[in-house]
Amino acid sequence: MKDFLAISDCTSEELQGLLGLAVRLKKERREGGNKPVLASKNLAMVFQKPSLRTRVSFEMGMRHLSGNALYLSPDEIGLGKREAIRDVSRVLSGYVDGIMARVFAHEHVLELARHASVPVINGLSDYNHPCQALADVLTILEHFGSLEGINMTYVGDGNNVAVSLIFACALLDMNFTIASPQGYSLPGSVFSEARSLAGNSKLEFRALEDPHEAVKGAQVIYTDTWVSMGQEEETKKRQEVFPPYQVDQRLLAEADPQAIVLHCLPAHRGQEITDEVMDGEQSRIFQQAENRMHAQKAILVELLADRS
Questions:
Q1: Which residues are designated catalytic?
Q2: Does domain 132-288 have CATH number 3.40.50.1370?
Q3: CATH number of 7-129+292-304
Q4: pTM of the predicted model as reported, rounded to 2 decimal places
Q5: Is it true that the peptide bond before 36 is cis, omega within 30 degrees of 0?
Q6: pLDDT band for position 307 (50/70/90)?
């Protein structure tokens, strides 16, 4: 891999390799610390959108590996406004060994990658969120010991997180169901791409409106905010449409008894998820948040480490 821009750009073998590397790096960290495999390496972190987890997990991941991370705020660059993206990409390529960008438009991260001579990592775009999905499947793998045949149900808006999740499921032999209000599910083109990525023709990719039907047999229930950054003008409408899709104890009880609950955070408690579920025994949300760092360390090592 030169870049990490979308889960759908990966092969199944590449994704499995990143997962295995993440498991090893997490174990290594717990047993005394990671080896300095990124010593003298520098990562530029370009932010159009703020984020607690993206900034801290990448910055600490680089530190764990003895590298350095430089935070560039939205006002410092003005990506595509103050300066052309192609120019930003070329300038940063002369200063650092890699670029992580958290952007609004997916085309911005694609353009960064087209003009960069160093690896580019998508820290989030309006199209997908591949770093999050890698942390998610790492969390599922840790809990169940295997991914093959796992039934994941995503409850809520068919957003960028859901796009990366369905592609991860396709590549890792997991079934995927999304439960959303009419008009808020994933587009048909995403389902078509997921089916083309799947090596197993028996995998199921479903879109339902009834969340109670959708969670039957689910071993993973995933939810996310009803209103993402950039959708603030839709807040009132979405808050009227999405309440039946709240992940509460009643909905969780209709899933597999051993089901776990995931949320990419930040969570709006009392909206898409209740306190009882988020803080309950079946929640793996904060393990999932920690795994952002370990999954991203695997990406950083894969893209930036010197090969001997």
A1: 102, 129, 132, 224, 264, 292
A2: yes
A3: 3.40.50.1370
A4: 0.97
A5: no
A6: confident
